[in-house]
Amino acid sequence: MVRLPLTPAEVERGQRLGALLRRARGCRSILDVALASHISPETLRKIESGRVATPAFPTIAAIADTLGLSLDAVWAEISRAERTVEDQSAMPATRHPSLVS
Question: Where's the HTH cro/C1-type domain (predicted)?
């Protein structure tokens, strides 16, 4: 099976996910959170670093549960920047006052 390269948006979303999980983990060790989530510490490390930008849903659900995060909150956080960019691109272009004749 050939895996398609990730888009820049997917890479950025993975980085936001990793940052969110690191913040939520706080001072807990990667080992403690990984074992409680039933995943390997290396998997959690890769997700937190953004090297795994599109982890499997059950993996994220397990980590979120361990960290006390709702999946809705996780999705809202990681997709916030995308919505901001989409909202800005949907806004009509404004003309600079010095360019209006």
Answer: 32-74
